[in-house]
Amino acid sequence: MKKTLAYIRPYGGKTALALVTKFLGSVAELVLPYVLSHIIDDLIPLKDAAAIYAMGGIMLFFALVALGGNIWANRLSAQVSGAMTHDIRYDLFRKTCYLKCGQVDSVTMPSLISRLTSDTYYVNRMVARTMRMGVRAPILLLGGLLFCFLLDVKLALVLLAVVPFVGAAIFMITRKSVPMYMKVQKSGDNMVRTMQEDITGIRVIKTLSKTEYESQRFADVANNLASTEFKAQRTMSLTNPLTTLILNLGLVCVIIAGAFLSGEPGVITGFLTYFTIVLNAMLGISNIFVILSRGMASASRIESVLDLDETELVEELPAGDENCAVEFRDVSFSYNGKEDNLSAVSFRLGRGQSLGIIGATGSGKTTIINLLMRFYDVSGGAVYVDGRDVRSVPADELRVKFGVVFQSDFLMAASVRENIDYDRGLSDDEIWRAAECAQAKEFIDGLEGGLDYDLAQKAGNLSGGQKQRLLIARALAANPEIIVLDDSSSALDYATDAKLRAALAREYASSAKVIVAQRVSSVKNCDLILVMDDGKISGKGTHEELIESCAEYRAIAETQMGVAE
Amino acid sequence: MRREGNVKDTRRFAKRRIDVRYILKNLGRYVRPYAWLIALIFLASLAGTAFSLIGPRVFGMAIDEIKLDGTTNFDKIWRYAAILTGVYIISGVLTYLSAIGMSYLSRCVVKRIRNDIFRKLMSLPVSYFDTRQAGDIISVLSYDLDTLGESLSNDVMMVLTSVVTIVGSLVMMLISAPLLVLVFVVTIPLSSLFTWWLAKKVQPLFRKRSTKLGELNGFIEEIITGQKTTKAYHCEEAVISRFENKNKEAVEAYTIAENYGTLTGPSVNFMNNFSLALISVFGAIMYMNGIIPNVGGIASFVLYSRKFSGPINEIANVLSEFQSALAAAERAFRVFEEQSESADAEGATELKDVKGNVEIEHLRFGYVPGKIVIHDFSLKAESGDVIAIVGHTGAGKTTVINLLMRFYDADRGTIKIDGKDITKVTRSSLRRAFTMVLQDTWLFSGTIYENVAYGSEGVAREDVERVCKAAKIHSFITRLPQGYDTVLTDNAVNISKGQKQLLTIARAMLSDSPMLILDEATSNVDTRTEQYIQQAMENLMQGRTCFVIAHRLSTIKHAKCIIVMNHGDVVEQGTHEQLMAAGGYYSKLYYSQFETADA
Question: Is there a domain that residue B230 lies in?
């Protein structure tokens, strides 16, 4: 919470101003009933019309001060909360961009997204509302009580005695209903999930004639939602009638006490008005507590990310073989620090050579890429790029050597050009050359506006194969030293895939290539093929060598291509 | 408590004429069964409000009884106090009862509408889901109906009590001091005008604010999911500056909207205070001139005036809520207008003891009129045949399956199973004759056992284990902490795409349907596992008529008949050998998988 509050500091002046104007505005409002009782009790008996008009003028004046003060304060608080949210969001986003992959894994991506989107929203709401209501409600509450004391101390004590009851009622209702609303939220999520499942599985459901069953299943969730909602509302609806009742009974007590203590009618009238103000203030305060608790939870979620240390150590480490573009020396690695995901992996890849990696899901293919680009640090052994240990190269210097397409990589909702260029300031010539090699030129030409064609969110307006070809073009466009393609041609048909491979070999002869694939045909012509099995290399060599020596590889080749040639 | 508004939802501001009569007619059907409840709620709220209106009047009378000269009639004071206590307790209870009554009513109504819409959805043809975003359908069922429900339980109540309060306090004020009511001739038009102006001004600003925030959040989601890519291309700074632009825009829109939005509170308060000032002054003057007989009259008038001006502002707010509730209700009810799957033909028979002989003749079909996907498609398959369909994405392979299972109906031509036209049998019996394994695996949140046994209810645990063993997924399942009782949810269990597909294959193995559809059934399974389950797949296919869609041509080499599709037409048809010998499109496709860089 401390860190979040520190974000207010740059706007300290404005905040103070907002609080002061809010204070003045609220106090001005409090004066009004006081003036009213003054009119009734002091001026009417004097029959002084002029004084009454003057008091009316004073009331109007205070009403205007309240109006102006509150409006100004609200604007200031909107500015402060907006600016502060902007700053928090910016810092959080920047931090998130630079987080190490291991840190992203442990916080998890959906959680990072919700911290950036909904948690910042709740912090914003907390700041804005507390600045508006957080000052106003206590002032109205305390001020209301204070003015009551000014009017008549004894009667005010009656009112004061009622306040704890109202507070207790609000507190108890809120405490009971907050967990209920959390249940409602859960129940609602449940319903949405059921719908989502049934919509995506409509074909299966219809095939198995399960529509009746699914309707029933949905009815159960929907009924559950309705009943939890009703339970929550049943409790929450108590707030208003109950607090109003308590306060009204308090007023009755005031009347009785007033009668015994010979309270003046004007004073009692003033009291009646202050009562309403105090009641509203208490409701406001209870509201603020709900918002505060929600906002503080969000703030701490944001802070826990901001507190992460994302710096990647760069240290002097012994060099490897200078003639190799990529070298793995007895590398082992574990994502969770327990069982190894990769062990004893060693291989060398010369400049301009190509490496194919094949193996079952979970066998460690993508892990090799992750270590190569230093998204994670090895647990044992060393990874060298251009003869230098990746841990001794600054991240920007290291990664600029690569052109990469990840498994299920993403395209921005921007133009084709922007997606290939990716903020690297490439010329159209470079872009077209890459697109041509990636077999993307033909379909880009067919798009309205060519390179200027705008992609939809998640590139929804392109087919799977088109997306992959754009991604490959992006990887090639800056003429990288090392091209990494992680299962990135699976949506291409064989003919296009073959053309792509031919073009890669021809156009990017000097770049090292690392190709992860499911298909033997994709890696068949690589200079070196690794067959991965459960984190270990079970075969290493060329296609021909592996067909001879590696039973595993031979089996894969046979299922995919019929007979091994 | 209104659920946190969906910031992305901008549709509800969409300007369109709303067919109120249509909505009320539909809503009426659901509300009518609760007519007695509504009557009770109405009476309770009417009485509750009326009772609370008596309060200030009695207060005024009590105040007048308090004499400063010590002649106070305490009996009367006690009586007034008792009356007030009774009135407020009764009013409180009635208000509470009517509030929960209304909330109960709205939950019941929404629940019924929701269930009916869902049932309706389930009866709609597959094309309805194919042409819509799942999110849109879901938002109608959840968000729109929630809006309607909230509106029913809060807004209706609000309007009801507001009207009673306004009328009631006006009457009471007229009784207390008729001339003083003239104060409102000044303030009400003023505040109505202001509220109207503000609403007009603020709506587009808030819409813009939501849009900008939605854009920002979309961007965040996109970048965070692609974080590795950003790192790989080392363009963090570029991404951050893009973000910064959107962030600035969002905050700017927020600040402007808030600038106007937060005017409401202070302005409403001002109007109240202004009225209070006017009433104080003129009330005092009138009292001095003897128009108002006693001071208590001013006191109760002040209380009534506070009650009076509140609801007027409320109503203005509620009206715009109503607008969005009506729009939401209309979207929901429109689902009922959708055409359900056409009923089974008259005299449709059950498809029983199916052998699996399939005969397709001169099929012609297009999803959209005028855009034909399949021109003229014929095929004959005998029980136990394996028919493979190959071709590029978009060639129309899946369309054939859609027609076969009557997810869509052909424009022309016939499909016969065991000599029976499929339009003359019941849909459910037709579909039950098929088993499918699709590329997009479908599992629901339930246990693994439930997922595998889905469609073959009551099947023994041993049978489920048997098929899971055959599908090579058994050992994975047993390694999970809860084994077959592990609940599959989005995030709880780390289950890969390939494993999901194996589960659906196991599900298919439990079925004894005579026909099988494999649409890229092993596309997500890695090659090694695919090898392991080959035997199981062959068993699965054994004795059934199979329709196989596949990318990997090796898997379909032994098919009885291979249908090669291109642009919605069958371009070639025959066995692997025949097609290879013909040297046409298929052979090109086949060779391309072996093509090498130097070829």
Answer: yes
The answer, as to whether pTM is greater than 0.80, is no
Q: How far is B432 from chain A (nearest CA, A)?
A: 6
Question: Considering only CB atoms, which chain A residues are within 8 Å of B529?
Answer: 360-361
Residue A319: inside a domain, yes or no?
no
Q: Annotate B451-478 with DSSP letters as a single string.
A: HHHTTSTT--HHHHHHHHHHTT-HHHHH
Rounded distance, CA A537 to CA A539, Å? 6
Residue B42: left if φ>0, alpha if ψ -120 to 50, beta else—which one? alpha
Residues A168 and A36 in one domain: yes
DSSP string, B171-189: HHHHHH-GGGGGHHHHHHH
- Regarding whether A246 and A181 lie in a shared domain, the answer is yes
Alpha-carbon distance values, B235 to A109, A482, B240 (Å): 19, 18, 9
Query: Which chain A residue lies closest to B441 (C-alpha atoms)?
Result: A201
The enclosing H or E element of A468 equals helix A464-477
Helix, strand, coil percentages (3-state) for chain A, rounded to 5, are 70, 10, 20
Residues of chain A with C-beta less than 8 angstroms from the C-beta of B115: 215, 218-219, 222-223
Is residue B166 domain-resident? yes
Euclidean distance between CA atoms A386 and A367, whole angstroms = 20
| Residues of chain A contacting residue B534, judged by C-beta atoms under 8 Å apart | 559
CB-based contact (8 Å) between B267 and chain A? yes
Give the end of a domain, one of B486, B512, B538.
B512
Say whether A193 and B490 touch across the interface (CB within 8 A): yes
Measured CA to CA, the distance from residue A456 to residue A292 in angstroms comes to: 38
**Domain CATH code at residue A8:** 1.20.1560.10
Cβ atoms of A465 and A435 closer than 8 Å? no
Identify whether residues B329 and B469 lie together within a single domain: no
Domain identity same for B448 and B333:
no
* A435 plus A328 within the same structural domain: yes
For residue A173, which residues of chain B lie inside 8 Å, CB to CB? none
Full domain range(s) for residue A495: 324-561
Terminal CA-CA length for chain B: 69
B186 touches chain A (CB under 8 A): no
Nearest by CB to B229, from A49, A360, A410: name it.
Answer: A410
Based on the fold, state whether residues A25 and A140 are members of the same structural domain: yes
Whether B247 is covered by a domain: the verdict is: yes
Q: Point out the domain boundary residue: B475, B497, B512.
A: B512
Nearest-CA residue of chain A relative to B103? A230
Contact state of B103 with A237 under an 8 Å Cβ cutoff: yes
Q: What is the ipTM of this complex?
A: 0.82
- Asked, for residue A287, whether it belongs to a domain, the answer is yes
Is A549 domain-assigned? yes
Whether residues A254 and A385 share a domain: the answer is no
Residues spanned by the domain of B6:
2-337
> In angstroms, what separates the C-alpha of A298 from chain B's closest C-alpha?
15
Q: Say if A489 falls within a structural domain.
A: yes
Could you read off the pLDDT tens digit of each residue along chain B, which spans 599 residues?
333 333 333 333 344 456 788 888 999 999 999 999 999 998 998 888 888 888 888 888 888 888 777 777 888 889 999 999 999 999 999 989 998 999 999 999 999 999 999 999 998 988 888 777 777 788 788 888 888 888 888 888 788 888 888 888 888 888 878 888 888 888 888 888 887 888 788 878 888 888 888 888 888 888 888 888 888 888 888 889 989 999 999 999 999 988 888 888 888 888 888 888 888 888 888 888 887 777 777 878 887 887 777 676 677 667 767 777 888 888 889 888 888 887 787 888 888 888 888 999 988 888 877 777 788 888 888 888 889 888 766 567 778 888 888 888 888 999 999 988 998 898 888 888 898 888 777 888 888 898 898 888 778 889 999 999 888 888 888 887 788 888 887 544 567 777 888 888 899 988 888 999 988 777 667 666 777 777 778 888 888 899 988 766 666 777 888 888 876 677 888 888 888 888 888 887 777 666 443 33
CA closest to A471 among chain B residues = B229
Chain position carrying tokens 């860190």: A3
Give chain A positions within 8 Å (CB) of B287. Answer: 44
* Structural domains in chain B (count): 2
Q: How far is B252 from chain A (nearest CA, A)?
A: 8
Query: Domain of A395: which CATH number?
Result: 3.40.50.300
